[in-house]
Amino acid sequence: MKVRSRRIAALLGVGLALALSAVLMTTAASARPNHVEKRTRITIMVGGINKVIYAVATLAKNLGYYEKAGVDIYPLDSPAGVEEADALVAGQIDAAMGYYNHTIDLAGKGKSTECVVQIGLTPGHAIVVPTNSSIHSLADMKGKVMGITGTGSSTDFELQYLGLRNGIQPSQFTRLPVGAGQTFIAALQHGQIDGGITSQPTIATLVASGQARILVDLQDNAQSKKAFGGTFPSTCIYMRTDYVNGHKEGVQRLVNAVVWTLKWIHSHSAAQIASKMPVDYAGSNANLYVSAWQQSLGFYSPDGIMPKDGPTTQYNVLAKFESDLPGKHVDLKKTYTNEFALKADRTKVPKAK
């Protein structure tokens, strides 16, 4: 009931945000020249907009690629991916930027959604524990309280799966939703959690300050493949299939902007990328933020295309602890599409701002 109450509250918050967004869109439209009226408007929810793993949402805007692609993006922030999945299915948003596994999970529940552009090729996470922790392997999680972003989130799935692969049942340790960033750090500092799974720049902040060490690094593609048994497609933009079918031109414009941004990331340094992000994303230590980006460069896809082994890897992860999923016929080919990424022209990337 507590989880349901949090989701209802989150969706009510989304509704209020969307109402404000609608007012802003109407005001902005009245001030635009007529030729701009043809731009596609898409409302997208991001599962932690200041995280490096979701940075494309902001970076594409700051590079001017949304504008050049002919799309107006109205981003909404949420603390965990499960909330954006709920909002998408409810029809309160047009798109979600979260982990690909949500489309498989939703397919098992009879909801048709699909990833339209694949952004991340590893989880982009790390399992961290206090520097002096007695936890030295995943098997040591037994009886411990481990932090995740939210119940039913991708971090929740990953931690359960890695526990299972190391002989620990989900019932043998506690997963506590603590969000990310400062809320995760505070939970670790105050002893509410014995460790947990998080992303950048939280990882770099904890390690550089000496408060934590990395137990399992899931930012590196080789280590991630070893941990999960294959490529782990993570961050993507996913939409309801009926929306995609009815708005192909708009979806293509959005994917163009994202693919151009991925291309730009792979042709620039961590420092150059960090300089294009809002100053407050770096917090009080700009050098640490650059370091977080340096560690995350291998996370990003170069072309937005789903890896061939990615869907099966993700299905195997979910099927381990989603008891109803193995009994359902899930056509993995319907949970993603490469149609738009393949059409995006990567050879003619517009000049960034």
Write up this protein.
- The protein is 44% helix and 16% strand.
- The chain contains 16 helices and ten strands.
- The protein has helices at residues 2-31, 56-62, 65-69, 81-89, 101-108, 154-165, 182-189, 202-208, 221-228, 241-246, 248-265, 270-275, 279-282, 286-296, 310-319, 339-343; strands spanning 40-46, 71-77, 95-99, 113-118, 125-130, 145-148, 174-177, 195-199, 212-218, 235-240.
- α8 packs across α14.
- The longest helix has 30 residues, at 2-31.
Features:
disordered N terminus, 353 residues, alpha/beta, 44% helix, five-stranded mixed sheet, globular
Give the strand order of the largest sheet, numbering strands 1, 2, ... along the chain.
Answer: 2-1-3-10-4
The H/E string reads HEHHEHEHEEEHEHEHEHEHHHHHHH
Unreliably modeled segments: 1-12, 16-37
Largest sheet: 5 strands, mixed
Number of helices: 16
Mean pLDDT: 87
User: How far from one another are the termini?
Assistant: 47 Å
Précis, in short:
The chain has 16 helices and ten strands. It has helices at 2-31, 56-62, 65-69, 81-89, 101-108, 154-165, 182-189, 202-208, 221-228, 241-246, 248-265, 270-275, 279-282, 286-296, 310-319, 339-343, and strands at 40-46, 71-77, 95-99, 113-118, 125-130, 145-148, 174-177, 195-199, 212-218, 235-240. Strand 6 (145-148), helix 6 (154-165) and strand 7 (174-177) form a beta-alpha-beta unit.
